[in-house]
Amino acid sequence: MDESPTGPDEFVREGFAGQRMLVVPRPAVERALSHPVTGKLFVTDAGFFPHASRHGRERPVGAAEHVLLVCTDGSGWCTTGRATVPVGRGDAVLLRARQPHAYGASEADPWTLWWLHVLGTDSGDLVDAAREAAGGPVTHLRDAAPVASLVAQVIDALDEGTTTTAFIRSSGSAWHALAHITATGRRTPGPGLSPVERAAEHLRATSPRRTSAHELAAMVGLSPSQLNALFRRHVGASPLEYQTQLRMARARELLDSSALSIASVARTAGYDDPLYFSRQFTAVHGMPPRAYRARPTGA
């Protein structure tokens, strides 16, 4: 469903050996966008281009839809505005609808791409969240396989026809793929952990022991203010708030699954003072620990 101008003559748009490509007919797209589920996020096109030699597109006015490209092998490039950035194995590219862009496979090592186009009332927010996490259109995934698998599930669902069931399945997989990119995408390439990932991993491994902001920042080679800003941007909370979340998760688990006293739960969750623990728990959950334990549970 690509209505943008064709690219340069040297680009090959499709027709690669072993490729898969599904394009939803326009009338079916219109119906899906009026559905309460698929109207929020709908995949209009999806495909898999293996070893796509000379593949590329140039869209001076952008595409009609938001575009996701996931490179699982080889390399290429992407241009938005005046900036051209390399795209390598494990990278994902997110392009907003109507944003001028161009992209193409490298000549020496053509990429293998999993890709999809999306529309819907929530599609722009999902794409923007992933771009914000990456700081631009290209995000580096530690492992691209889960996202590629989700795009494959989108293709499989669309291959079942233009039924509402197939469309809902494809929308769910696409939503999962974009959410996965937002949660795991990084600004720096390579297999190593970023400073924020190293800090979060340390906090998870040592919880409920408290680690000071200065100590945590020194571990990952940043100043406390730098780490706090990066942590908030990528995790959605400060390191201190994240440690409290980990402690509270442990407390909830104990309250739900054990008969320990509130004081014992507090100590196990890292709080020496049961009264302070109760105040913190109430501030987070809107009820004290005893009320939380007594609430109705079950599926």
From TrEMBL:
Keyword set, alphabetical order: Activator, DNA-binding, Transcription, Transcription regulation
Q: Name one GO molecular function term.
A: sequence-specific DNA binding
Any Pfam family matching the protein: AraC_binding
On the tree of life, the source organism's domain of life is Bacteria
Q: Which PROSITE patterns match?
A: HTH_ARAC_FAMILY_1 (PS00041), HTH_ARAC_FAMILY_2 (PS01124)
Q: Which residues form the signal peptide?
A: none
Q: Start and end of every HTH araC/xylS-type domain?
A: 197-295
Q: Does the keyword DNA-binding apply?
A: yes
Keyword Transcription set for record: yes
Under the heading InterPro entries, the entry gives: AraC-bd (IPR003313), AraC_XylS_family_regulators (IPR050204), Homeodomain-like_sf (IPR009057), HTH-like (IPR037923), HTH_AraC (IPR018060), HTH_AraC-typ_CS (IPR018062)
Q: Any idea what this protein is called?
A: AraC family transcriptional regulator
Q: Which organism is it from?
A: Cellulomonas humilata
